[in-house]
Amino acid sequence: MSTPKIVIVGGNFAGLTGALELRRLLGDEVEITLISKDDKFVFIPSLIWVPFGWRKPQDISFALAPVLERAKIHFIHAPATRIDPTTKTVHTSLGSYSYDYLLIATGPYPQYEIVPGLGPNGYTHSICSIEHALHAQAGWKKLVDDPGPVVIGATQGASCFGAAYEFLFNFAHALRKARLAKKVPITFITAEPFCGHFGIGGLKGGQQMLEFFLKRLGIRWLTNVGVKEIVPNEVHLLDGQILPFKFAMIIPPFLGVEAIRNSPGLGNEKGFIPVKPTYQHQHFSDIYAAGVAVAVHVPWQTPLSVGVPKTGYPAETMAKIAAHNIAAQIKGDPPREEKEFGEIPALCVMDAGNMGVLILSDKMLPPRKFELLIPGPQAHWAKVAFEKYYLWKMQHGLVQLP
Ligand SMILES: Cc1cc2nc3c(=O)[nH]c(=O)nc-3n(C[C@H](O)[C@H](O)[C@H](O)COP(=O)(O)OP(=O)(O)OC[C@H]3O[C@@H](n4cnc5c(N)ncnc54)[C@H](O)[C@@H]3O)c2cc1C
């Protein structure tokens, strides 16, 4: 029998975890190839600190090639352009690769086009990639020289609200450090029905806690608002309000990446992969998906659309489940490991520069039995410690706790 070929597309939280876990589970029994458009692993949660110079790109990233080489995983540094599930082929800008099993972990495509003028090609900043966070750093420096109003937030259809809040509170912290807080009025805008909904339905006490922080920092907030367009120095909201700004950072909605949207039958209308609780594609038993690439049902209706965040811990959990199920299939067993997305625990930190809130709950989506928010400086230090630990662990090819 020929050696089974596994291809992983995407090399960050879900992709690298999946690739290393497969090697750990299957040893040399399989040939593993990882295809990624980026040649680095980036610890995306730390991008919130790049605009203020508190992290440099090299502090929060490492090269994938040596890690993959040590794990005997072939590395193709190229974007996938299309996937053909019938011929079992991934097409890339460097050639085509066939697979017996495929794990799709391509993350999000930030849909700036949803609002005219939104994003780094328009008039607002973003922190969704290293390049954009560095661009935001240039914007921050300009604001320090010439202070004025600031707008921070997330558009209708966004799902990554946590990043908008973290950036907001870090921004307020950076202003205080620069002694500019009084010269820079901040408005926070969000499509969430209330502060702290976070796209997960909110957590007990979360709204009150966030509103307390916002009031204490003198930040004005507008919930349930959508953005109509951005013109130079002005955000125009759907309800007619106009917010002037000298600096704006607004998180867009996410779609699945173009390669999935270019592959008929693979993704849903937004380019996300419909999966079973085993993270196996609903129609192709040899295709799995993990992380942001996965389609998640939004279990509520809000006046403006609000997506569900697929954060780091669930991304890793999905990748490990997918890896175990691929390993089972290769050994001739059925894929048995499963966990609905909503059942995965929520573990994260909402950082605020010198303090933060530790967020713990038994499930990503309600109904939940256990929800705990622990504010304080220890949350900030927990995030810093986790960043260092996670980068060390992944750079050493370790997917299980050492
Ligand atoms: C600013 C910000 C802050 C965040 N903060 C937190 C936080 O504090 N805590 C938390 O838990 N989560 C946080 N998140 C969410 C977290 O970053 C995601 O959950 C995580 O990155 C998802 O991992 P992923 O592997 O699915 O996608 P990604 O990490 O985005 O990785 C996608 C991978 O696919 C590759 N790729 C994309 N397209 C192609 C293609 N066509 N061909 C080949 N490769 C491709 C990319 O190069 C990359 O390697 C934050 C997100 C943002 C944007």
Topology:
Blueprint: E1 5-9, H1 13-26, E2 31-36, E3 40-42, E4 61-63, H2 64-70, E5 74-77, E6 80-84, E7 89-92, E8 95-98, E9 101-104, E10 108-110, H3 130-145, E11 150-154, H4 161-177, E12 186-190, H5 206-216, E13 220-222, E14 227-231, E15 234-237, E16 242-244, E17 247-251, E18 254-256, H6 258-261, E19 287-289, H7 312-330, E20 346-351, E21 356-361, E22 371-376, H8 377-395
Parallel strand pairs: 1-2, 1-9, 2-5, 9-19, 11-12, 11-17, 12-13
Antiparallel strand pairs: 3-4, 6-7, 7-8, 10-18, 14-15, 15-16, 20-21, 21-22
Helix pairs in contact: 1-7
This protein binds flavin-adenine dinucleotide (FAD).
Describe this protein with a few key phrases.
single chain; 402 residues; alpha/beta; FAD/NAD(P)-binding domain; 2 domains; 4-stranded parallel beta sheet; 27% helix; 24% strand; binds flavin-adenine dinucleotide
Describe this structure in words.
The protein is of the alpha/beta class and about 400 residues long. The protein folds into two domains: about 5-110 and about 255-340, FAD/NAD(P)-binding domain (3-Layer(bba) Sandwich); about 110-250, 3-Layer(bba) Sandwich (FAD/NAD(P)-binding domain), CATH 3.50.50.60. Helix content is about 25%, strand content about 25%. The protein has helices at about 15-25, 65-70, 130-145, 160-175, 205-215, 260, 310-330, 375-395; strands at about 5-10, 30-35, 40, 60-65, 75, 80-85, 90, 95-100, 100-105, 110, 150-155, 185-190, 220, 225-230, 235, 240-245, 245-250, 255, 285-290, 345-350, 355-360, 370-375. A five-stranded parallel β-sheet has the order 5-2-1-9-19, covered by helices on one side. A four-stranded parallel β-sheet has the order 13-12-11-17. Strands 6-7-8 form a three-stranded antiparallel β-sheet. Helix 5 links the parallel strand 12 (about 185-190) and strand 13. Helix 1 (about 15-25) runs parallel beside helix 7 (about 310-330). The chain is globular. It starts with a strand and ends in a 7-residue tail after the last helix. The structure holds flavin-adenine dinucleotide (FAD). Flavin-adenine dinucleotide (FAD) binds near residues 12, 80 and 257.
